[in-house]
Amino acid sequence: MMQQTIDQPSLTAPDSIGRANGNAYQYVPAGTGPAYRSPIDLIRFLITGEQTGGAFFMAEVSVAPGCGTPPHIHRREEETFHVQQGSLTVQVGGKTLTASPGDLVCLPRGVAHCFQNNGDMNAKFLVVAAPAGLEKFFEEAFYPEADCPDAPPMTEAFLGRLLAAAPKYGLEFAPPA
Predict the structure, then answer these.
(1) Which structural domains are found in the chain, ordered by start?
(2) How far apart are CA 165 and CA 125, in angstroms?
């Protein structure tokens, strides 16, 4: 039997794209995706709607202790969290969940929810939004990490960015429970 050698491209560059059996694949080395900061978190894009044909967006998120989101509603997408480090207290549908490493929380569109890191270390999780589009909100409302290496302060200017961008991407801020 003859041995067949298949040349494979080197996958060392960020966002390397290749083909296997005629289908495109993407490789994103750790820490290389575009990243955006808010006063509460750092979000690093892993794959965007542009790269998935609009099917989904995926990012890794790091939330400092004591930080979290206000109650909000996604009108366009489901949002799923897979906790990797620390823990998140997630409020959804009148329930309070504590998500630990390995736990997954899938949040349906149209339901108010929020999360908080009540631990003593950064909470890290993967977030998947389907369909894609939510990444455009982060690009518009948050600050590029390159321009803001540390968490920015919560200011009126930042809140203005958030409130201006949210309706464009089907995001509503709900009153606290």
Answers:
(1) 30-172 (2.60.120.10)
(2) 23
